[in-house]
Amino acid sequence: MDHWFTRNIVEPGKLPLLLALSSFVLTFLATRTVTRLIRAGRGPFRDVTTGGVHIHHVVPGVVLTLVGGFGSIGARGQVAAAVCALLFGIGAGLVLDEFALILHLADVYWTEQGRKSVEAVVLTTALVALVLGGSSPLGVDSLTPEERRDRANVLLTVGTNLLFVVVALLKGKFRTAVIGALVPFVALVGALRLARPDSPWARRAYRRRPRARARAGLRAYRHDRRWAGLTRRFQGVVGGFPDHAPAPDGRVPPPSGGDGGPSGGKGDPSGGKGDPSGGDGSPP
Q: Which candidate, 48, 56, 145, 168, has a CA 20 to 30 Å from the CA of 225?
């Protein structure tokens, strides 16, 4: 085990990346645990406020990310690089835990839109793990040393894989495209399969092809029916289940307390207006 760790992590210089990934995941899990305890009114944890302003943990997260990122540029020695990697991972974990807040510019932590934070963390973890495992963007790692010296082969490989990624994006398959940037075969599958019915590709390419449009809608429906529930349960177990949406008569259930409460923190179900449209059910 020690020999494997030295050969695959230490010698290639991937130890800082491993430390950053580990601190990133642990920070996210610890933060979600604390916010769930605050939400339930348990434990010694409380919201941080100053001057009546609720301080979200994305604020110290941004500071730590900047310190770790800039520090790693000028770090000399393994110890300094390891410390900067830990700081960067902790800061990134705090920032992406509130990714939905940054995206919507509203406190949607415990709403349906807040699930996007969990999705961003899971996707980031998967991508960094792939890089840690040896994958390189756009299939460059699949080239032999001789092929890498041939600029034409490099440009052809990168350009082809980039084309697959772009097509997958246009077909509304964001997760497939992102993962496909590191695993080209995934992008190829996403590029060849039918587009999502609400994607730019479908709106243009299927405009005069009713059969293709119908098949795309049916496939998306079957996919969402099969995977959306499982995805939502996973997100709920990892990051906490969102507050209930407002009732048809406009009444909102009482807040469950914690991390913001009625004053506008993360326990306020009205912060994100309870819009249930956050889960788009896009294919992985």
A: 168
